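Anyone up for a design puzzle?
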């Protein structure tokens, strides 16, 4: 996920970061490995929260459940703990030990064997405290970064957020209709980004249905409520789930479409041209653009390397400007 896309989703209140200084982290051994609903989390782990009123976020990692508690109200669809996204980036760079960020307040992470062991945020962390923490977790290495380095690490961490990370913290209590209506209102979103968001939400929706199915079955098993209403609910969710299995496969097969649309969007942006029409059916490619640099636009699209037999099918000169409406046709490789 690029920072640009992350900032857009953040602006739309679809995603946000839970800062280290606004959360309390706890990791516990767990036999479970599936995402738990908010109610189950609160019922089983509330005793570990240092706050009277709080929200809780979790994920599973190597036989442990990681818990982030916060008393800050989070209204976004996906909340990613800052320590989690920093961990994923740092361990890709073989960082293993105590990581100290000289920010205000200071931020400290303990990473051992690729897992997060502790997060701390304080106005001051003494060398003595650092040595005690290193002894507690039997680690040797210390990594210190100033504020600028921290900002660079966080930006790189955001750029490395994967779809798996989003799914991992995706709430299973969600209203997809509200999300879609919100996106529809944002008509100024560039086409390539809008397509990406819509496809992503469809896959997230599929994941949601899967989680809801698992949650409903678990309730059925634990409470032994063999009522017609609950059974019908399971059958209905299974039916929707099967539809999203097909959708997931289709999106996987057509993921290249997003790449093509984004690349063309960048080309048009470079020469101040605009989309008029785009249709991709099977391997057929049809694109109409408004531009005053027809040959330049056509050459750049050819050089993208996605198409065979690409030709300018027609051009229409605009009466009151130097622009042309250009229809380009070809085949996707």
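Challenge accepted. My sequence:
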């Amino acid at each position: 996920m690029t920072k640009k896309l992350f900032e857009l989703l953040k602006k739309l209140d679809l995603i946000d970061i839970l800062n280290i200084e606004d959360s309390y982290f706890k990791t516990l051994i767990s036999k479970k490995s599936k995402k738990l609903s908010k109610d189950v989390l609160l019922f089983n782990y509330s005793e570990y929260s240092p706050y009277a009123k709080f929200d809780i976020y979790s994920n599973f990692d190597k036989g442990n459940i990681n818990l982030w508690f916060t008393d800050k109200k989070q209204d976004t669809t996906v909340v990613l703990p800052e320590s989690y996204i920093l961990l994923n980036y740092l361990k890709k760079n073989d960082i293993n030990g105590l990581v100290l960020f000289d920010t205000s307040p200071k931020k400290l992470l303990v990473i051992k064997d690729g897992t997060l062991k502790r997060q701390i945020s304080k106005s001051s962390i003494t060398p003595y405290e650092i040595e005690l923490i290193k002894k507690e977790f039997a680690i040797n290495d210390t990594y210190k970064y100033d504020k600028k380095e921290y900002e660079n690490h966080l930006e790189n961490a955001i750029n490395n957020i994967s779809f798996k990370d989003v799914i991992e913290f995706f709430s299973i209590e969600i209203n997809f209709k509200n999300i879609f209506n919100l996106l529809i209102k944002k008509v100024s979103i560039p086409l390539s980004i809008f397509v990406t968001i819509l496809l992503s939400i469809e896959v997230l929706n599929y994941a949601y249905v899967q989680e809801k199915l698992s949650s409903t079955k678990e309730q059925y098993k634990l409470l032994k409520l063999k009522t017609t209403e609950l059974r019908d609910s399971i059958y209905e969710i299974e039916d929707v789930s099967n539809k999203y299995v097909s959708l997931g496969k289709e999106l996987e097969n057509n993921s290249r479409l997003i790449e093509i649309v984004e690349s063309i969007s960048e080309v048009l942006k470079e020469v101040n041209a605009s989309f008029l029409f785009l249709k991709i059916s099977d391997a057929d490619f049809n694109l109409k653009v408004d531009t005053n640099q027809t040959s330049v636009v056509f050459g750049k699209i050819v050089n993208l390397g996605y198409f065979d037999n690409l030709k300018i099918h027609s051009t229409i000169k605009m009466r009151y400007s130097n622009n042309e409406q250009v229809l380009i046709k070809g085949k996707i490789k």
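A detail worth pointing out: The chain has a mean pLDDT of 80.
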